[in-house]
Amino acid sequence: MKDAFGAPQSLLVLGGTSGIGLATARRLIARRARTVWLAGRPSPALDAAAASLRALRPDGRAVGTVDVRTVAFDALDPASHEEALGKVFAEGDIDLALLAFGAAGDQGHDEADPLAAVRVAQTNYTGALSASLVCAGAMQAQGHGALVVLSSVAGERARRADFIYGSSKAGLDTFTQGLSEAMDGTGVQVMTVRPGAVTPRHVTGGRLTTSAEEVASAIELGLRRRSATVYVPARLRFVMAALRHLPGPVYRAVQDATVPE
User: Which residues pair with 155 in a beta bridge?
Assistant: First the structure.
C-alpha cells in the first residue's frame, strides 16, 4: 500500500533496463519505496540494473534496505504474460506498475522489411496491451494501484520520419484512454505519459526534448495529481494541440523542425 504521504511503496517496472523506468524507481526509492520488481528478458543488463537499485536506501544515499527482484518478461510473448506477471502480484500488492518497454525501430529499414515493422508494432502495441490488461486486472483484484503507460507525442500525428513507431503509439494511446475509462471507480488509476525526444541528462537538446529524470519527476507529480495524461515537457500539450490541426502542406513544412522523435 502507499505510505502515509501517498507515495507508492511497491513498484513493478515492465522494461527493467529502461532509463525512464530506472529513473522513476530511483526517485520513488528516495520517497520510501520498499519493493521494486524489474521485469525484462534475463540479461547482464537487467542484473546490473537491479544491483544499482539495491545500492540505494529509501533516502537515496547509501547501501540499505530496498528489496529489488527481477522477473523474466518478454513483451513479444503475450501468452506468457499472465504467468510471469502473476508471480509478481502473488508475492504481494503492487502500488505502481510502469510500462516502460518499447521499440523505436528504424523507419528507413522497417519500410523495406515488413517483418521488422511488425515487430515494432507487436512490441509497442500488442505486448503493451497484453501486459496492461494483466496488471490492471490484478490491481482491480487487490482494490488499488496505478498503471502508468509510456506513450509518445509521435502517436498524435503521423510524421514521415517515424510513422511506423508513431502508429503503434497511437494505438497504445487509444487503448490506454479506454482502459482508464474502464477502470474508473475500481480504485485503479491509469495514466498515459507522452514525452518528447528523451536525451541523456548531460546532452543539451531543444526546448521540446526531455530527460529520463524529467520524465520520472513528471510521473511522480502526475500520480499525486491523479492526472489522466502527462506531457513532458508540459509545453508539448499546447504544441501538439496546434500541430494536430495544421493543414497537411503546412504540417509537412514544419514537422521536422518541431515534432520530437
Answer: none
| Residue 165 annotated in active site | yes
Dihedral (CA of 154, 156, 161, 166) sign? positive
Does a cis peptide bond (omega within 30 degrees of 0) precede residue 233?
Answer: yes
Tens digit of pLDDT for each residue in 168-227?
999 999 999 999 999 999 999 999 999 988 876 544 445 668 899 999 999 999 999 999
Cell 528523451 belongs to residue: 198
**pTM surpassing 0.85?**
yes
Grid cell locating 160: 514521415
Dump pLDDT digits (tens) for 58-103. Answer: 654 444 578 999 999 999 999 999 999 999 999 999 999 999 999 9
Q: How many CB atoms lie within 10 A of CB 198?
A: 21
Q: CA-CA distances (angstroms) from residue 249 to 56, 238, 245?
A: 51, 20, 12
Please tell me the distance from the alpha carbon of residue 158 to that of residue 141, in angstroms, as a whole number: 37
